[in-house]
Amino acid sequence: MYYASFGILAVILHLIINQEILRKGGATLKGSPYYKYRLFLIAILIFYIADILWGFLEESKIYIAAYIDTVLFFSMMAVSVLLWTIFVAAFLGRKNVVTTIMLVAGWGIFGFVILLLIINVFYPAIFMFTEEMEYIPGSGRHFLLGAQLILYLAISLYSLFVSRTVPGSAKIRYRVIGLSGAVMALFIVLQVRDAFAPFYTIGCLIANCLVHVFVEEYEKERLVRISKQATENKTTFSQIAESLASHCDVIYYVNLQNDKYVGYTSKNIYGDLKIEESGDDFFITVRQNAPQIVHPQDCEMIEDALDKDVILTALEDRKYYVLEYRVIVETKVQYTRLTIMKTSEGSHLIICVENIDDEVKREREIAQAINTEKEMARRDELTGVKNKNAFTELELSIQKNIDNGVDYLPFAFVVCDINYLKHVNDTEGHKAGDELIKNSAKLLCDIFSHSPVFRIGGDEFAIFLSGNDFAIKEQLMDKLQSQVLLNQQRKDGPVIAAGMSEFNIGSDHSATAVFERADSQMYENKRILKQQQ
After folding, report:
1. In this structure, how many other beta carbons lie within 10 angstroms of the beta carbon of residue 395?
2. What is the DSSP string of 419-455?
3. Who wins on pLDDT, 229 or 394?
């Protein structure tokens, strides 16, 4: 009873002193020094209770119960040492080599005790009971207490040394930890000298009392800082929300733990549709509302893309997740952009929705202007057919496919040259010459109506035959030559020399080779036309 009385006193004082910390439970911020200190206090409380029970059970001579309680006693001693080192590392607020060694030592002692307790089942490494229920300490107990003595002394000396160099409240924290470590080291020495005295329990109680006041003060300071930070964050969030609202029409704030959401609307982009600005499940609401709002062709994409798992996966390797889609507002199609990001702590999603109708319209106008400009750059100003630049691009595209080993589609080139253009320019003037060029272009476009016609020189044209025109290329060439002969006989209308050559997959390695053969055929035809004049 004498032994157990110290444990009973320790439990009473422990509960009185630490009732506020122990009572807070889950309200304490996990990961904070205060939370870790609470875990340590719970472990010490269980240790005290085990110590009390040992006093009663050792006197009552109940072997099995005494053995189990002794195992619990040493186990909770190891747990309390581990939790103490974890608390001290967090409380001191430094993450360096020393605190890392401290944590490793705490885990080492914990593992060492568990190992000894397992061995103790087969061999009395820490303790044993005789047949007369007499408690006999083992040699392992001395190693265990010795390891703790070294740890507490090291923490004490380190803390007192560092306290000389740190300012303000940090100095007090280091001194308190140093003093409590020294107290534990002292009472461990006394415990080693007398295995049956409750010196370890007394040391824990005194060290706990030393630290308690400063932990409470530390927590109050932390709560003040949190309150101040929360006020600042609230102001900042309001400013951010206002800034986002200037760019977004709707903002949703989604809690990732329970999927609840609130929304802020600066502009009604949904017309007469009533969209809830808060709810219990954002993702279910999306699936319910999408068919009413989203364009039918985009609805399935939005439902799939706004799945919670899809969003979180997408945000693993990027800051923003952006979707563009169409909504139907009062029978009109409206382009919309949705931007999703995580808050800095990762607990919420911020979802911004904006009407991008004007942006899409501007982009289309710019794209159309660029395309028009590019098209104009590829058009012959006089005839309206494609020009030399466009033909060069076509040749490069064909050559790229040939060089890459791609079996290019069957094609042929027709090369044409206007006869008598110089004579017309010299005798009738350049205006009449221009009319001849335009009439020649019209004739070629009428005959090769499904193929692009290029003006590649003053009096030269080229035609790219593919598809259906390639299939009837001989008929088209006959039609051209017949019209040219008729024009020459009537001396009315353009007389055009023409030659054609098709791409041979086995022997041709360049588009230029095909063009040059067609060019040669054109000159042969020009010679024949002059003979028939």
Report:
1. 18
2. TTHHHHHHHH-HHHHHHHHHHHHHHHHHHTTTS-EEE
3. 394
Report the mean per-residue pLDDT for the chain.
82
Per-residue DSSP letter, 346: S
d(CA 120, CA 112): 12
Higher-scoring residue by pLDDT: 412, 97:
412
Contacts of residue 137, Cβ cutoff 8 Å, sequence gap at least 6 = 126, 127, 195
Contact 1, 59 (CB under 8 A): yes
Query: 133, 125, 185: which is closest to 155 by C-alpha?
Result: 185
Place of tokens 């790219």: 464
Q: From the centroid of its chain, how far is CA 66?
A: 56
Tell me if 37 sits within 8 A of 53, measured CB to CB. Answer: no
Model pLDDT, residue 241: 56
pLDDT given for residue 242 in this prediction: 55
Alpha carbon distance 446, 448 (integer Å): 6
- List the domains of the chain with CATH numbers: 2-226 (1.20.1070.10), 248-362 (3.30.450.20), 378-531 (3.30.70.270)
Q: What is the DSSP string of 354-384?
A: EE-HHHHHHHHHHHHHHHHHHHHHTB-TTTS
**By the 8 A CB rule, do 90 and 32 touch?**
yes
Give yes or no for a contact between 452 and 384, defined as CB atoms under 8 angstroms apart.
no
* Phi, psi of 327, rounded to the nearest 5 degrees: -120, 155
Burial class (CB in 10 A: 0-12, 13-18, 19+), 467: exposed
Predicted pLDDT at 330: 76
What confidence score (pLDDT) does residue 2 get? 60
- With a CB cutoff of 8 Å and minimum separation 6, the contacts of 504 are none
> 287 by DSSP, 3-state: which?
helix
User: Sign of the C-alpha dihedral, residues 454, 460, 464, 469?
Assistant: positive
Specify the amino acid at residue 378: R
In tens, the pLDDT along 169-210 reads: 677 778 888 888 888 889 888 888 887 777 888 888 888 777
What distance in Å separates the CA atoms of residue 414 and residue 188, rounded to the nearest whole number? 105
CB atoms inside a 10 Å sphere around CB 468:
10
| pLDDT, tens only, 124-161 | 888 888 777 777 888 888 888 888 899 889 888 888 88
* DSSP assignment of 227-270: HHHHHHHHHHHHHHHHHHHHH-SEEEEEETTT--EEEEESS--S
Query: Can you give the pTM of this predicted structure?
Result: 0.43
Residue 406 tokens, joined: 């791609």
Q: Residue 240: its pLDDT value, please?
A: 53
pLDDT at 531 over 60: yes
Helices 199-247 and 168-193: crossing angle in degrees, nearest 10, is: 150
Provide the 3-class DSSP secondary structure of residue 402: helix
Q: Between the CA of residue 83 and those of 40, 64, 72, 213, 317, what are the distances in Å?
A: 5, 28, 16, 19, 36
Q: What is the pLDDT of residues 50-92, one digit of tens each?
A: 888 877 776 677 778 888 888 888 898 889 889 888 888 887 7
